[in-house]
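**Protein record**
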Amino acid sequence: MSERVLVTGGAGFIGSHLADALLARGRRVRVLDVLSPQVHGPERRAPAYLSPDVDVRVGDVRDPAAVRDALEGVDAVVHLAAAVGVGQSMYELEHYVGMNDVGTAVLLEALLERPVRRLVVASSMSVYGEGRYRRPDGRLVAGARRARPQLERGRWELEDEDGAPLTPVPTPEAHPCELASVYALTKYDQERLCLMIGAAYSIPAVALRFFNVYGPRQALSNPYTGVLAIFAARYLNDRPPVVFEDGLQRRDFVSVHDVARACCLALERDGVEGEVFNVGSGQPRTVLDVATGMARVLGKEGAAPEVTGEYRFGDIRHCFADISRARQRLGYAPEVDFEAGLEELARWLRGQRAADHVAVMRQELSTRGLTLGSSEAA
């Protein structure tokens, strides 16, 4: 009989694509998902895009009984269940720590009684804080950050002690982690807990640090989800996307199909237990370029992005992936070209409706003092 894989959080964006990929590989798939209203709407129904071949268990990963039930007869686990979002994590601390940290601890305690062949945990590029930089003299910099006075003046780029600009370069897994948000802290906790307990109890575990994942099935009405989904929700409501700082911050956008493939490889490859891998495209793009690219594929070229000149606490300037380790150890290589991925996303979006909650999100962050306007933007 074929292997059964449990995907926690498997009814969501990445999880549903992973379920499809696993089924295509001949695996049986079970999903444990709380069906959060912020992602799945107030009716909390399993989404129609989830394959009927998936065994869906509705339950909270923080509930030991639900987790034990979901693990019955399971051979491997991919742990995706998490509260997601940098900005929201900075004021819903209990929710993020509970869902991400406590949920992972509950899963691991259950695995002590029912060990599996492989555990894959979804971590995040957010654990790096700022990515890797190079000084004008060529030396690499780790632990760089921006001071508040600099941000208040609207000087967004990182600088050395003499005020010279630093140049962003690809970030490898060995880069020191600088946790800039509650979300980042909890994602780091998730990966460390899984690797630590995996090593102690001989449960082979692998951590994947996802960069900015995009594609069909993103939660369009969640203003704390991926930036492309937020931009899409604005465009679908004939409003311009909101871009913080000056829009020139660089990120690594990776197709959800490539991410699902990386998860499958992490389940299948021998000799990678205890390791951490970046999962990205390896290609940096500015947020402003992504916003205009989305406008182009949706035919919304007239909706120029609203560049706020504001800093959002918890955000970083540049971070994009060095994926050489994943290439060498996992055999991972991104296959979806960004333009092709945008076109696929646009085709899916044409049949979607989205509630635009960006204004509510901005007000929430502003009221709590979690945004900072620059004097130059004023």
